[in-house]
Amino acid sequence: MPEWRLGRHRGIFCAVSGSGDARRRIRLFADRAASERELHRLNNPRPRDVTVAWIWREYLHEMQDRPVAATMRHTAKALLPHFGDHDPETLTVDQCRSYVAMRRALGRADGTIHTELGHLRTVLSWAVKRRLISHAPHVERPAKPPPRDRYLTRDEATRLIEAAGFPHVRLAIILLLGTAARVRALLDLTWDRCDFERSLIMLRNPDDPASRKRRATVPMNGMVRAALSEARAGALTPWVIEWAGKPVRSIRKGLATAASRAGVAPLSAHVLRHTAAVWMAEAGTPMAEIAQYLGHRDSRVTEAIYARFSPDHLRRAADALDLGVVHPYQRTLRK
Length: 335
What we know:
single chain, DNA polymerase, domain 1, hpI Integrase, Chain A, 8 strands
């Protein structure tokens, strides 16, 4: 089978193989991305027996420039040893249950397994849309566990900051609490997106337009501005959170060490983002503003999680049930 390479002919991309008299050319498209997808299909023809592993590779090829590709490559390490050789159209509930039992035996939480099988659903649905398979079978998943509701008190947060052993860990904790940003947004943050004149932080990375997660522009409060000013004075790289002249890829270990020193139970960076949102709700901040901080597209999502922390949550409803209060509509009825 010839190996096709991308070429151009009269302004149109084409697939080219061989050379000289044996040279062949297939006209493709004017658009490069569409032409590269077609070239991939020519070099990777559909096998006679389509497998889950094959459609997963096709999915990754199409999504290779998007952040989701890294997630799906990681999930594939767990899923493909179990499902990879199977016909995607004939997957059964028993196979899904077998996978759940296997992952539980390895100590994986139901939340993790729920997400992994959700990724399998995503790839199967994509394959149907691309007509790689005719239908996607039902993928049974364990029930999604309730969201974790842990957040820090202000005393715990203060101790955590004081216990941070390295400047970059301390800065990360302050920014997580002071901006309610996702940790990846902060690790990607560069100094050109910190506007000290207007006291604003632009969390959205203009070089990553394909990101699925929305990122807000948030104001610097006093704590954040002071920490950023100190860090900028000694900055060695364009990245805000750096260590030894390099950008930081993870603060997981640094956060675990700080929590241990502070006498705080182990926590993830997401707990700090959740803490920031709870504090805003407890202060009576409108849900629409909290949603903007968190980058939620729909404030109803924010309200479903954080409204109960607001001091005014259900207050009017509770007052309506108070027998000791005479309400305006009751006065009207009495007249």
